[in-house]
TrEMBL record:
Gene Ontology cellular-component terms listed: cytoplasm
SUPFAM superfamilies for the chain: DHS-like NAD/FAD-binding domain (SSF52467)
Family: Belongs to the sirtuin family. Class III subfamily.
Protein's name in the database: NAD-dependent protein deacylase
Database matches in InterPro entries: DHS-like_NAD/FAD-binding_dom, NAD-dep_sirtuin_deacylases, Sirtuin, Sirtuin_cat_small_dom_sf, Sirtuin_class_III, Ssirtuin_cat_dom
Compartment list: Cytoplasm
Species this protein is from: Corynebacterium matruchotii ATCC 14266
Active site per UniProt: 169
Cofactor: Zn(2+)
Function recorded in the entry: NAD-dependent lysine deacetylase and desuccinylase that specifically removes acetyl and succinyl groups on target proteins. Modulates the activities of several proteins which are inactive in their acylated form.
Gene name of the encoded protein: cobB
């Protein structure tokens, strides 16, 4: 039995009122603050270059023993993986991504979804980790321990060399039986997109194999969720990269670090719903910002 009810992936919701579903005694969400509004008397710093970072934050970053990095779609944007939003195949141009990401849609008609996820896996396999993924793997070597909690399903963090990854939304490469859960290996991904494909049968129970990703209406994987929650509490610093902070429950995680008073560094080209929680919010991209940040950590550690 899970020790608490696992939160389900929900459609975008801008209300921080969902946060209490975490049901922690110390968890008392503060009123939602607008950009650059003060909390605890401190403004969110919005530096334009790393040279403008508050010196105390550089110190936090270089002395941090446990680093928790929390990543979203923006992390992989410079690897060319914004897929369905700028679908180049034309096949899914007018498809609502949420229609391809719900358990109900799968139950109704798995074939379009199976074709779509195979294609996405192919595209992810062709993509390369960017300088941001690589910088994180380098940083892991410098600190005592690092956890990368990602909402991405593309496996680019592990391909860049990160060792400890919590896949909150599963992985494009973790196919499994839709009923008995037995893992399934796809030997070869299609190199051409198709509108419909029939999912293979589980060799054990003969039910259809499904993508190993978390769909709307499904619970997040327990081990990953608990690890992410725990690391939001124990990390010395939390770095939030490329996430808009609108898909719950993942978006509620940085709030835990905020409630713990942990420094939060956000890297995002535009302000997000998480910006008011950040100690520093740097308007840059993952592939530009992270290598500079890690170089700074290296430099200050001598
Ligand atoms: Zn099965």
């Amino acid at each position: 039995m899970p020790r608490h009810r696992l939160p389900q992936l929900t459609t975008t919701c801008r209300s921080p009122d969902l946060a209490p579903t975490l049901a922690r005694p110390w968890f008392s969400p503060r009123p939602h603050l607008g950009e650059n509004q003060a909390y605890n008397g401190i403004m969110t710093a919005r530096p334009t270059t790393i040279a403008d970072f508050p010196p105390a934050i550089i110190e936090n970053l270089s002395e941090a023993r446990r680093v928790h990095v929390f990543t979203g779609a923006g992390m992989s944007a410079e690897s060319g993986l914004e897929t369905y939003r700028n679908d180049k195949t034309g096949l899914w141009e007018n498809v609502d991504p949420q229609a391809m990401a719900s358990i109900d849609a799968w139950a109704r008609d798995p074939e379009p979804m199976w074709a779509w996820y195979l294609w996405r896996a192919h595209v992810a396999e062709e993509a390369q980790p960017n300088a941001g993924h690589i910088a994180l793997a380098e940083w892991e070597q410098l600190c005592d321990s690092m956890l990368v909690t990602t909402q991405n399903i593309d496996n680019l963090h592990e391909r860049a060399g990160s060792q400890h990854i919590a896949h909150l939304h599963g992985s494009l490469f973790a196919w499994r039986c839709s009923i008995c859960g037995r893992p399934y290996r796809i030997m070869e991904l299609p190199t051409q997109p198709a509108a419909r494909l029939t999912p293979p049968e589980c060799p054990l129970c003969h039910n259809p194999v499904r993508p190993g990703v978390v769909w709307f209406g499904e619970s997040l994987p327990q081990r990953e969720w608990e690890l992410a929650e725990q690391w939001m509490m124990i990390a010395d610093v939390v770095v939030v990269v490329g996430t808009s902070g609108v898909v719950y429950p993942a978006a509620a995680l940085p709030r835990i670090a905020y409630e713990c008073g942990t420094p939060i560094i956000e890297i995002s080209p535009a302000a997000t719903d998480l910006t008011p929680l950040a100690t520093v919010s740097w308007a840059t991209t993952a592939a530009r910002g992270l290598p500079e940040l890690v170089a700074k950590v290296q430099e200050s550690r001598g």
